[in-house]
Amino acid sequence: xxxxxxxxxxxxxxxxxxxxxxxxxxxxxxxxxxxxxxxxxxxxxxxxxxxxxxxxxxxxxxxxxxxxxxxxxxxxxxxxxxxxxxxxxxxxxxxxxxxxxxxxxxxxxxxxxxxxxxxxxxxxxxxxxxxxxxxxxxxxxxxxxxxxxxxxxxxxxxxxxxxxxxxxxxxxxxxxxxxxxxxxxxxxxxxxxxxxxxxxxxxxxxxxxxxxxxxxxxxxxxxxxxxxxxxxxxxxxxxxxxxxxxxxxxxxxxxxxxxxxxxxxxxxxxxxxxxxxxxxxxxxxxxxxxxxxxxxxxxxxxxxxxxxxxxxxxxxxxxxxxxxxxxxxxxxxxxxxxxxxxxxxxxxxxxxxxxxxxxxxxxxxxxxxxxxxxxxxxxxxxxxxxxxxxxxxxxxxxxxxxxxxxxxxxxxxxxxxxxxxxxxxxxxxxxxxxxxxxxxxxxxxxxxxxxxxxxxxxxxxxxxxxxxxxxxxxxxxxxxxxxxxxxxxxxxxxxxxxxxxxxxxxxxxxxxxxxxxxxxxxxxxxxxxxxxxxxxxxxxxxxxxxxxxxxxxxxxxxxxxxxxxxxxxxxxxxxxxxxxxxxxxxxxxxxxxxxxxxxxxxxxxxxxxxxxxxxxxxxxxxxxxxxxxxxxxxxxxxxxxxxxxxxxxxxxxxxxxxxxxxxxxxxxxxxxxxxxxxxxxxxxxxxxxxxxxxxxxxxxxxxxxxxxxxxxxxxxxxxxxxxxxxxxxxxxxxxxxxxxxxxxxxxxxxxxxxxxxxxxxxxxxxxxxxxxxxxxxxxxxxxxxxxxxxxxxxxxxxxxxxxxxxxxxxxxxxxxxxxxxx
Length: 822
Fold this sequence. Notes:
37 strands, single chain, alpha+beta, 5-stranded antiparallel beta sheet, 822 residues, 22-stranded antiparallel β-barrel
């Protein structure tokens, strides 16, 4: 039995036992619980200094604020599209373990009803200071935590050898060879190179290597008296430039019909000819680090007969050395520069993982020599339990021409125990990254009118090949792209058929809560372009879904994402060709200025709910039938398909949103900014939420304008606190409202305190006034490192007055519980 199998079957018995126990829970009736957080990805897309928090919905990242000199960062965002409503009703947590040089990360999302959500990130150990920088991801469904100035992919020229000093550049070889390096610098590598400028060959004397330009400049300053022409060379940029020149020269020769390799000057060819056999000898002797260094020296020379072969063989050397991510990058660069010929075919075989299938003795020996990446075997996750309670009391005083009096209504509207289990097993080696994920929510209700329910959120196995270009996810999962915009039971498969290009296929059965009675299934295909340009990636897709034998959805779509070191822009277009209707059109972006200011914008158009034939079941004409149909099949028994589709089209409202905002640091203590929002939502049909709550139909809102000013102060009350002050003015066709809000996050050793206070007043037609006070306190105590206790209390006091009526309402909501991180 392989070590991989042993991991899943024997060495992690507690994972298997937990999965069996959770499967028993799944037998009970289902409930819905929109899971917003999906997973934490460590080093995604070959970024060596990035941790990515992936969401199960499209989001708009707004800002991130560090809490003093602690390991806490507070992230603010909006949910644009998810499984159900945007209200978060349970505590969600994710945690990743430290890996390589990256720290562990814990993300916590508490119950919230406001449109702007607050997420807490804990970076590293409790007493460390968070040094990560948080930016929006490229796909509109993630945020990236970057440890450093910018996201860095695995580099072909390592950071420690990026810079060198060109001490002397001369047309005389003897002049270069006659120079003596000072004794104090003789521990550095000295090497020669050549360049051709305006038809002349220049011989260069170089000294290296340096990790930063500052280190190189410090050394250069001490050498100027001896080498006044000394310059700093960026070897990474130079190598790319030389390869591009070699590629252009090769293409030029093919165009002329010579079919020959690029012709270099004799001295260049001579130096490359001396280096190549040494590099090949080192490669054959399994001295891979020396081979990589020698191939790099060839690639730093002007285009020559050996440039193309050196680019292929440096990929081989990195592959055998266990540097698989860098090997893929070398192979991808080769195919970008030399896409045709026998070498290209060999490189494609490497990328496709066909080399691993070879049973030749040479391949077996090569595999045995390879220094594999560290094997990762982990079981992680969390178990949390929270008691949720809430009550409402409403007192109404009324005065009519015939009667005056009061009435009081009191009700306990929430009393339940909620248990959430999140388990993830991971096995990663040099060949693949594999995961087993299980998430379950269980609610024990203490209110007779609400049943106790259970819901399996996720139960899937995922495989990502690190050398063969294949990936798969099987089981209950949540689709967030490729036209799959919700939870489903099924499979997603993908294959990199060329560098940066992946073909995907998906099929499954939608899972919604409450479940519809229709028999629905879907399939789709998509194409990913990881690097349309250096910073642009995209996806196009086609998806088809049926419900009880008729067409439910047929859509095409396009997703684009642009990423820069200072921000990102992402877009999504989803068009239903069967209804000739735009389902989703969204464009959003974030951009950070050099001084730390943050711009954000959002343009969003969408049908809500998503336009499918199944939403006909929510049409008022259907819900008024007796008995109420619960499937498309039942509707088709008495109505035509065209009538059902008309009901569906009328049941999906159009929602439009525009948002623009800016916030900037004023000094070390204060940030200030503001934003503008314009929303317009069409009439919505009534619906039933996953917890049994019945929402009545709502009329169209018309244009609603919101103007907000915001100030954020750090260390105002205590050293490790963040204070957010907000003033918001809201105006609609029938109302005017004003909001004053204060939020605080304070870290005190193991305690995190989050008090807040909101005051909202509104004047509505006809002559109705509302005033609402909402104080809240949230407490978290970290106990024994992996066990935290959490409590929250909200009190809401509302007064509504209108002619002849005065209503006072009081609501109490609280939860208390614990979270154990595995």
